Amino acid sequence: xxxxxxxxxxxxxxxxxxxxxxxxxxxxxxxxxxxxxxxxxxxxxxxxxxxxxxxxxxxxxxxxxxxxxxxxxxxxxxxxxxxxxxxxxxxxxxxxxxxxxxxxxxxxxxxxxxxxxxxxxxxxxxxxxxxxxxxxxxxxxxxxxx
Length: 146
Hints:
Elements (H helix, E strand, L loop, with lengths): L1 E6 L11 H4 L4 H14 L3 E6 L3 H10 L6 E5 L8 H9 L4 E5 L21 E4 L5 H13 L4
């Protein structure tokens, strides 16, 4: 079982960017935690973060036929990343969308998530721990829990 973990714009700044909203855990901390969990449940994770939508799409498309699911935090693309949304929708595997903050309880413009309608699994507002939930829920949907 191989799962892609795709991180959007500004997530490389986790831990320092708006810690009152996004917390103090860094992206390397999240990656390390997910890798430990993946090892425990015998799932391979491949990780990628970019501040550029096209690079995210290129990476996702390069994995065609190799992955069984995707965990994605679209971050700064949440409201308008239609190209990434289409690429996720067309990858042919279940997709878990994760947001660190509850985007639906923030500013009005943040409340429209173009990724919500394509998500097999959707988590918002659980902070960094939401990644664990998203991965486990995605695996459950795939039928691969161990």
